[in-house]
Amino acid sequence: GEGGGAKKQQGPPAVPPSVDFEIEQFSELMGQIDQGDADQKAYAAMELQTMALDSKSQVLMAQNGAIDPLVKLLQPGDPMVQASAAGALWNLAANEQNKFAIAQSGAIQPLVAMLYSEVREAQLSAAGALQNLCVNASNKKTVAASGGIEALMMLLSDKDRHVKAKAAGALQSLAVDEDNQKKIKSLGAIPLITKLLSSRTPEVQSNAAGALHNLAVNDEDAQLAVANAGAIVPLVGLMTNSTPDLQAKAAATIWSIAGREDNRKRIVEAGGIAPLVKMLQSNHLDCQAKASGAVRCLTMSAFTRPEFEQTGAIPHLVVLLSSGNQEVTINAAGALENMGCR
Q1: Which residues of 80-104 are buried (b: 16+ CB within 10 A; e: fewer)?
Q2: Most distant CA pair in the chain: distance in Å?
Q3: What b-and-e string marks burial along 13-41, b requiring 16 or more CB atoms within 10 Å of the CB?
């Protein structure tokens, strides 16, 4: 029933109340996947997508043979059948073992092809499925080898914000792999991803910041490219006014590009110090950790230190020394040492 939903204003629970896995219903749906006409196949795959929201069902569905028949439906044909099959695989791919099994069944190539579909639902569910699949290390390589990086980059300028968000999320995961980092950069993705920081959709902004972080970390050329693409001002904006999760994501990206002295100057000029000092006082652990890391990195250059002192950073860093979180404590101690406090 849908009754009584008015009291609670948050979205559906992340994990729906545990569904007793209905083997009869499941078998009937698999029969339609196998024997049905296009409408029945699409309907059955949508029902399987809903069933696969439950984490226990994800395991049981895979054990009972859901994956191969769904992957077969990704082949070109009826786009709504493709879209609903990809949607079911998207949810099944939330499970670690399934990420591997779905790729083994040959899903990646047809999912990448679906990113070029004329039908929005097909693009969206393929991008969502790929975003989940790309968390797995070997899938990162398969997606890149299947032309996935180029296809996902194309979707970064899609009109649909949901499609954009999933494409940026998949690239964020792909960029953890060193070969993929090189490829994503050489294809010119950094300016495209930077544009998304100014999106009005938090999921798009978060995935874009994460992708830039993964490209910039340990790579001075990429750090320069991110700054040259104009990322610093919108990142400072996100640290100034957004949700704590997004603030932390932006601070992590600022930290990742602050390895370069020239970028430190640009971060200071963009007004980056005040929001970082404010984040040191957050009660959100990730904000404290990422902001203290960025402050530690920035204070390696003497020219940043006076403004940190004037903004009152030192007492806040001292408070974080007893935070009980190792990352926060190490960062705060390092920043204090850089600022000449023993």
Answers
A1: bbbbbbbbbbbbbbbbeebbbbbbe
A2: 74
A3: eeeeeeeebeeeebeebbebbeebeeeeb
| Residue 35 tokens, joined | 């024997």
d(CA 325, CA 135): 26
- Taking the CA of residue 4 as centre, how many other CA atoms within 13 Å lie in the half-sphere pointing to its CB? 1
The beta-carbon contacts of 158-165 under 8 Å, at least 24 apart in sequence, are: 158/123, 160/120, 160/123, 160/124, 161/199, 161/201, 161/204, 162/124, 163/120, 163/123, 163/124, 163/127, 164/196, 164/199, 164/201, 164/204, 165/201, 165/203, 165/204, 165/207
pLDDT in tens, 214-250: 999 989 999 999 999 999 999 999 999 889 999 999 9
Residues 6+ apart with CB under 8 A from 38: 77, 78, 80, 81
Length of the chain in residues, anyone?
342
d(CA 90, CA 170): 12
Q: Which two tokens stand for residue 29?
A: 């749906």
Note whether 266 and 227 are within 8 A (CB).
Answer: yes
- Give the span between the Cα atoms of 233 and 271, in whole angstroms: 8
- Asked if 184 and 168 count as a contact pair (C-beta separation under 8 A), the reply is no
Are 89 and 70 a contacting pair, CB within 8 Å?
yes
Q: How many CB atoms lie within 10 A of CB 319?
A: 13
Could you report the per-residue pLDDT of 80-116, keeping only the tens digit for each? 999 999 999 999 999 999 999 999 999 999 999 999 9
